[in-house]
Amino acid sequence: MKLQLPSVKSSEITPKSIFENRREILKMAAAGALGLELSSWFAREALAQTKLNVKQNPAYTLMDKQTPYKDVISYNNFYEFGTDKSDPIAYATSLVTRPWKISVEGLVGKPKVFDIDDLLKLMPLEERVYRMRCVEGWSMVIPWVGYSLSHLLKQVDPLGSAKYIEFTSLADKKQMRGLSSDVIQWPYVEGLRLDEANHPLTLLTLGLYGEALPNQNGAPIRIVTPWKYGFKSAKSIVKIKLVEKQPTTSWFLANPSEYGFYSNVNPEVDHPRWSQASERRLSDDKGFFAPKIKTLKFNGYGDQVASLYAGMDLKKFY
Ligand code: MTE
Prior knowledge:
- This protein is an alpha+beta fold.
- The protein has helices at 15-30, 41-46, 69-72, 87-91, 116-122, 149-155, 194-197, 250-254, 302-305, and strands at 54-56, 101-106, 112-115, 125-133, 138-148, 164-169, 189-193, 203-208, 211-212, 222-224, 237-243, 278-281, 292-294.
- The protein is 18% helix and 22% strand.
- The strands form 2 sheets. Strands 1, 4, 5, 8, 9, 10, 12 and 13 form an 8-stranded mixed β-sheet that branches.
- It starts with 14 loop residues before the first helix and ends in a 13-residue tail after the last helix.
- The structure holds ligand MTE.
- Ligand MTE binds next to loops.
């Protein structure tokens, strides 16, 4: 089946018609029916999110070719909506992202509940193009929008006893059909060491491709840590807690030998069931026929982050 997109001039497309077509297009995208048509101007506009006022941060640009928008928003892992890559685009339409509050609590002097619209204004929004490497062996290059998580953490005065940070995603059965499966323990919990969380690369992420985050990519707010495997980047976060002990994460509970706490991208440490030495970069129409390229240690961010792990045996702390 091929999607027949109506032939209309761009000037004739009103927000209403875009909205009405959106659901249909999302459904068809999920059914794999869109193919190349999704890259057409119309489909791109129909899927558009709120535009954000964004400035590119020249410190975080990349020469690597960016993964097309259609792939970034249609090939996702977001188990709260199902375990297939096409489930999030189909079913995350049920996620309600306004109002949305994020509680920042735990070992902090000034715990606070932030409204998402205040977080959008807390700092100037930057575009940062990051390489993203999934533990499954594929990778993307994505222009994210946000600012360093450290700016948010400063607001709550972390105490000296805080050593780790725990991110909790929304878990609402009414909105998230995937919660009926016990594939991992809900809510989705991830964590970082506090110095990793405060590293300037760690992005409090509010958008991509200059627009607010699509639901399937973790709207309205997620974390992105580009030197770690993708599962460390928790989506649709409602709670950030500073703690003394290393958090127990959902993936670690599911399979401790496969999902270590650190999960730094490391071609020298294989996943127990497959090699991590190479990856397929989903940056053009070849998709999974893209030739394999070598995976870089710390996903190519070693100059910035290797010092965080000085003296640590990264095979032990995988
Ligand atoms: N966050 C939540 N809450 N639930 C998830 O299932 N999947 C993780 C991560 N964050 C996941 C999540 C995994 S395995 C990956 S690879 C990335 O999100 C995928 O992000 P993307 O779909 O925006 O590329």
